[in-house]
Amino acid sequence: MTAEIISGTEIRKAILAEVKEEVDQMKEKHGKVPGLVTILVGSSPASISYVTLKVKTAISLGFHEIQDDQPEDISEEDLLGLIDKYNNDPDIHGILVQLPLPKHIDDKKVLVAIDPDKDVDAFHPVNVGRLMIGGDEAKFYPCTPAGIQEMIIRSGTETSGAEVVVVGRSNIVGKPIAMMMAQKGVGANSTVTIVHTRTKDLASHCKRADILIVAAGVPGLVKPEWIKPGSTVIDVGVNRIGMNEKTGKAILSGDVDFNAAKEIAGAITPVPGGVGPMTIAMLMKNTLKSAQYALK
Ligand code: NAD
Predict the structure, then answer these.
(1) How far, in Å, CA of 133 to CA of 230, rounded?
(2) Looking at the domain covering 31-117, what would its CATH class be?
(3) Which of the following CATH numbers is that of domain 142-278: 3.40.50.720, 3.40.190.10, 3.40.50.300, 3.30.70.100?
(4) 143, 196, 271: residue to mutate for ligand 1 pocket, most atoms within 8 A of CB
(5) Secondary structure, 3-state, 231-257
(6) Three-class SS of residue 179?
(7) Residue from 54, 139, 228, 289 carrying the catalytic annotation
(8) Which residue has a Cα nearest atom 5 of ligand 1?
(9) Ligand 1, residues 173, 253, 282: which to mutate, most atoms within 8 A of Cβ?
(10) What is the pLDDT of residues 115-157, one digit of tens each?
């Protein structure tokens, strides 16, 4: 049987439509909209393209959006001053500082300067702590893990009591998604195992996963025979495995052999078009949530 394909592109569309509806309602009821500032230091083409996508998406949802571009040589002090200004601006609910920053600026100092209640990326240690506590404490979840959990929920996969195996223990994907799946709550209540480079028998852990979340960044790491029949497989890996000579675009693959795995799994995310498109949708959702908290 071929697995259900969990399309991040489709789920993103649905989430953005839901966010737009809530923004319209907020505007009608309270005369306010979510406010997002994106701070870009310098002019790296990759950073410009990420920021442009965020700005375009925010504007399409009716957000109050400020794109604040700063020169490469801005001092750390001036950048911290700018963050302080937005921390104190009641019309701004989300502050994004595009990484990487120039070498003369300590990015850790900058990230902790953001008011945790406006930290819609959820990288601030206060938000990491809130995620550990869970429940109402957790205001925002980091966007990629939040996207993963949303895809699991919307695929109809039962998470309560499910064996979840997370491959990878990074701060931005592996560790937070593992903790989120173990918490009490919707789309959670799972029994979670984290595996990594020092794990002795990766295959045996993966084989018992009802939900397998792979975020290693190693193409083809998970073999088809490691997949439990009928399980849900979330492939977070994005690996450049070549170049399409006609289009000049990179050929991407995940960490799982998709074509073989889809004949065994019950549901699976593709790469591209899986977890990737979800991140920006969750960023917008976090900004909406932040504006809703501010109205309470
Ligand atoms: P990372 O390099 O910080 O962490 C990778 C983790 O995988 C490590 O904890 C490591 O222990 C584990 N790992 C690596 N090789 C392994 C092996 N052979 N066996 C077992 N464990 C192994 O990476 P990251 O930032 O968590 O990203 C992981 C992948 O997800 C990358 O391909 C990245 O591009 C992708 N990613 C995608 C999105 C998105 O789609 N929105 C977001 C973030 C990361």
Answers:
(1) 32
(2) alpha beta
(3) 3.40.50.720
(4) 196
(5) CEEEECCCEEEEECCCCCCEEEECCEC
(6) helix
(7) 54
(8) 216
(9) 173
(10) 999 999 999 999 999 999 999 999 999 999 999 999 999 999 9
> Does 142-278 match 31-117 at the fold level?
yes
Domain positions in the chain are 31-117, 142-278
281 lines ligand 1 (CB under 6 A): no
Please write the tens of the pLDDT for every residue from 223-246: 999 999 999 999 999 999 999 999
Q: Does residue 287's CB lie within 6 angstroms of at least one atom of ligand 1?
A: no
Note the pLDDT tens digit of each residue in 28-87. 999 999 999 999 999 999 999 999 999 999 999 999 999 999 999 999 999 999 999 999
Is residue 54 flagged as an active site residue?
Answer: yes
Q: Is 259 exposed, middle or buried (0-12, 13-18, 19+ CB in 10 A)?
A: exposed
Instruction: Give the C-alpha distances (Å, rounded to integers) separating 183 from 22, 133, 137, 186.
Output: 27, 9, 12, 9
Q: Is 183 a catalytic residue?
A: no
Catalytic residue among 118, 119, 121, 262: 121
Q: How far is the CA of 258 from the centre of ligand 1 (A)?
A: 17
Residue 10 · residue 69 · CB < 8 Å = no
pLDDT band of 296, cuts 50, 70, 90: confident
The pLDDT score that the predictor gives to residue 113 is 98
